[in-house]
Design goal:
67% of the residues lie in helices and 9% in strands. By secondary structure, it is mostly helical.
Length: 122
């Protein structure tokens, strides 16, 4: 089982990297009758691959090991908390929550690459 999880994680990681240039998006919602990229929510194929990659890595490792407790992690958590507060207090709360979710996804990718993937795949 461990062998297949490791192979699946490696496969998802490389699929994620290869699929980045081929961004195909699905529009989840838009606020007005006209299309505005800044007032719309999207779902990308790479979002699905990244979610799968993070789930497999959590199952495989049980927890991520932060090898160095640097100021980068603390600053990213503080930044996320400020973005969460800003997203919930904005004019359009639905769009703010969507943007916080996208920021969370990017931070999880950053942490994954920084503390785990660069030691395993690169």
């Amino acid at each position: 089982m461990r062998y297949w999880l490791e192979r699946g994680e490696r496969f998802l990681f490389w699929i994620f990297l290869v699929s980045i240039p081929f961004q195909t998006r699905i529009i989840l919602f838009q606020k007005d009758w006209y299309f505005s990229e800044w007032r719309s929510g999207f779902f990308y194929f790479t979002d699905a691959v990244l979610i799968g990659l993070l789930l497999v890595s959590l199952i495989f490792k049980k927890q991520w090991q932060f090898k160095d407790r640097s100021v980068v992690y603390v600053a990213s958590i503080v930044f996320w908390c400020l973005a969460l507060f800003s997203g919930l207090q904005g004019y359009d709360q639905g769009l703010g929550v969507y943007q916080v979710i996208k920021l969370t996804e990017c931070l999880l990718l950053f942490w994954y690459v920084r503390c785990y993937a660069k030691y395993r795949f690169l």
